[in-house]
Amino acid sequence: MLDLLRHNNFLYPMIVFDKVSKSYPLGNTALQDVSFEIENNEFVFLVGTSGAGKTTILKLILRDLIPSAGSVVVDDFNVSAHNFRHIESLRKTIGFVFQDFKVLPEKNIYENIAVGLLVMGASKHAIKEKVRDSLEMVGLLEKERVFPIQLSAGELQRVAIARAICGNRKIIVADEPTGNLDPKTTWDIMKIFRKLEGKKTLIIATHNTDIVNSLKKRVLVLKSGRLIKDIRKGGYEL
Amino acid sequence: MKDIFTSLRRTPYQAFATFFALFLTLFLSLTIFLSLSFLYGMLGFVESRPQVTVYFQNQVTESDIQKIKEQLISSNKVNSVKYVSKQEAFTVYKELNKDNPLLLEMVSPDILPASLEIFAKKPEYLPELADYLQKQTGIDEVNFQKNIVEKLLSLTSVVRKVSIGFFAYFIVTTVIILIAITHFKIALKKDEIELLRLLGASKWYVKKPFVNEAMFLGLCSSIAVYVVFLIIFFLTLPSVESYLAGVKLLSIDFGFYILPIWPFNMIFGIIAFLFVSLFGIIISTIATLLATKKYIR
Predict the structure, then answer these.
(1) Comparing C-alpha atoms, which of A22, A98, A92 is closest to residue A57?
(2) DSSP at A16
(3) Which alpha helices (H) appear in A76-208, and where do they start and end?
């Protein structure tokens, strides 16, 4: 079945890590010989304790880091090449959500989301339409003129998700998106991610076992920089 | 424009610091530009006057004077030599004293000497030419403006050298100040820059607001400098006019175009404004590009 889907182009690898290692000049190794493939529109959890290498993988996908060995291919871009010259094009295909939200305090919610479309050169009309769609999806349409200081942590994370999904970005990477949130808000955020399932390639780094075990999605388990398990429709225990 | 004003409102002290650093540099640059223009104009004015005038004794015939003229021309040290006969000298005299009939009555063409008005190729040739003329027979008097031309030449040269020194100093100082200010602004917007880069913004997209703001401040400070200059100029105009009473026109000859400097005119005013505004915009843009190149990776 999987082969049939691949053959008909329904499934193709969106992200390929091939024997990827990342070590830093002072000698600490963040990743060691990690290989995996993530299909287009797949929903994947990256799990592991702090320092296991989750954030390093996300940074390699964003080309915020370059691997010391091996290759990383994202949406057909070989981002591990040292002379890689398409960072802007690559990043325009990726939306990101971080634990610290990364919203701009001096811009209102509408402007915070529009910034992702402005860098793509979208027209004012298109920006207005797409920002509204994104806000509607995350349930913040009535707060578009509000400033970040007036929002709760859960709402701020929803703003970050709205910005990440705005503008036809194919991949969404989220680094501990529920790390600062209470259990109820955490589930609200996960509901939004579930709405994106099958529409975007989702990679969520987390150590929230409840979420991972409940959603039964693919789980990549990392330990001390090594990929120790790749579980389809699985849960995990730390 | 909206983004520029928002940025200025959010970082007013950095904006004022940029504005005043540019204002000072541009004001001094405009002063230097105007001083040099006037000095070159004065030099041109003095050089356009006969540089050596030789008066002949009455007994010297026109053919003897013409021989001396030909020898001067063949020396390759003069641009032109003009023969002024007794009659022509009398005509000039009459023109100069037309309001004084008493002086006109006392003078006839015979009294006035014939003369040669000589324009040298280089001011350095003036003493040599004067020396040569003094050795000729029948010479009554040799006048030459060696001192004025030499003084003006050396003054222009000194002002030019000092100006280049000051210019370089002010450019370097202003660029360093603007780089430091832009660095502050970049540091203030660090999170926004990081976010934009992660969202796929190009380096130029990130740099553009800084460059636009710098160009705007460069233009604003140059307009302010020009307005202040015009106010000072019109306040001091009566004294400048009395100082330059005998000078009807000062200009700089570029070969393909003669630029009138004095009396102050629209063309020179526009050129001065273009100079100061272009200089302001270029210097602020260069400083910002250097800062953004260094601090936005």
Answers:
(1) A22
(2) E
(3) 87-91, 109-118, 124-138, 153-165, 183-195
**CB spacing of B200 vs A120 below 8 angstroms:** yes
Query: What digits encode the pLDDT tens for the residues B224-281?
Result: 999 999 999 889 988 888 887 767 778 877 778 888 888 888 888 899 899 999 999 9
Q: Which residues of A touch B11 (CB under 8 A)?
A: none
Cβ of A64 and B198 within 8 Å?
yes
**Residue B85 pLDDT > 90, yes or no?**
no
From the list B10, B192, B200, the residue facing A92 with the nearest CB is B200
Give the amino acid at B204: W
- C-alpha atoms less than 13 angstroms from C-alpha of A69 in its C-beta half-sphere: 10
Closest residue to B200, CB basis, from A104, A106, A119 = A119
**Interface ipTM:** 0.85
Q: Which residues of B touch A84 (CB under 8 A)?
A: none
Backbone dihedral angles phi then psi of residue B147, each to the nearest 5 degrees: -65, -45
* B5 CB within 8 Å of a chain A CB: no
Contact criterion met (CB below 8 Å) for A97 and A55: no
CA distance A117 to chain B (A): 9
Please identify which residue in the block is written with the tokens 């020009």: B226
pLDDT score recorded for residue B129 = 82
Contacts 24+ apart (CB under 8 A), B58-64: B58/B110, B58/B113, B59/B138, B60/B114, B60/B137, B60/B138, B62/B114, B64/B138
Q: What is the pLDDT of residues A119-165, one digit of tens each?
A: 888 899 999 999 999 998 888 888 989 999 999 988 998 899 999 98
What is the distance between the terminal CA atoms of chain B, rounded to a whole angstrom? Answer: 25
Shortest CB distance from A119 goes to which of B191, B194, B196? B196
Closest chain B residue to A165, measured at CA: B199
Structure token pair of residue B186? 């970049």
Nearest to A91 among B191, B192, B200 (CB): B200
The pTM score is: 0.72
Q: How many CB atoms lie within 10 A of CB B291?
A: 25
pLDDT tens for each residue of B41-79: 877 777 666 678 888 888 888 888 888 888 888 888 888
Beta-carbon contacts of residue A149 (< 8 Å; ≥ 6 apart): A105
Q: For position A4, what pLDDT does the model report?
A: 53
Cis omega (within 30 of 0) for bond into B263 = yes
Query: Under the phi-then-psi rule, with left for phi > 0, alpha for psi from -120 to 50, and beta for the rest, what region is B152?
Result: alpha
> What burial letters (b/e) apply to A66-105, b meaning 16+ CB within 10 Å?
ebbebebbbbebebbeeeeeebbebbbbbbbbbbebbbbe
Number of neighbouring beta carbons within 10 Å of residue A6: 13
d(CA A95, CA A173): 6
Q: Is B2 on the interface with A (CB under 8 A)?
A: no
Q: How far is B4 from chain A (nearest CA, A)?
A: 15
Q: What is the pLDDT of residue B146?
A: 63
